[in-house]
Structure formats: structure tokens, C-alpha cells
Amino acid sequence: MAYHWPGNVRELENVIERAVILSDDGVIHAYHLPPTLQTAETSGTRYRGSLEARLESVERELIVDALKGAGGNMAKASRELGLSERVIALRVEKYGIDFRLFRPKAN
Fold it and tell me: Which of 11, 36, 65, 100 would be a feasible disulfide site paired with 7, CB 3.0-4.6 Å?
């Protein structure tokens, strides 16, 4: 949302369609996009902070993604990430992640 798109909506649609076609794993990666959209400098979204802060940010995102995929089940998420249940519990606490938010809603 922070990126200024230099074209119109139709051009954006074409770029996304092309990226979807090029993707072989169901995920759009930066290399599927035009070169002008591949770098943080070009897009104006360069990350600021120390290496440790960056790694923690990536780690938190991976844990959240695993919890989403596991429906909030910490044991299943820990297996997906190759961590023990104790380690994922410590990381969830460290990052203040509420795993219950990822559980399926009861009707």
C-alpha cells in the first residue's frame, strides 16, 4: 500500500496475472515481478533496523504463518517449523502472539 504504482490499474492487473502464471509453488516471489518492483530502494520500502531486529521480524512472521496454517495449534505449528513445543511457546510469549486468534471460529 505504501508503494506508488507508476501505471494504471490495468497494468497492475497484467503484472499480477503474469506473476501468478510464472509461479510454480502458489506463491508470488519478488523475482516474478518486474525489476522496478523487486528492490526495496525502488519501491521506497527499505527496512530500517539492526540485523537482530530484522531476523526477529522474519521469525515472528514465520511463527504467525505457521499458527495460521495450524489453526492456532501450537504443537502442529512447532512441527511445521521444526521446533520443540517449548521453544515455540517461548517465542510466542516473546513476540506477544495470541495463538488463540488463529483458531477456527465456532458457529
Answer: 11
The arithmetic mean of pLDDT across residues 41-46, rounded, is 57
Question: Does residue 62 share a domain with residue 98?
Answer: yes
Name the one residue in this structure whose C-alpha cell is 499480477: 16
Same domain, 57 and 38: no
In angstroms, the CA 36 to CA 3 distance is: 11
pTM over 0.85: no
| DSSP class of 66 | H
**Interatomic CA distance for residues 87 and 78, integer angstroms:** 8
Distance CA 63, CA 92 (A): 8
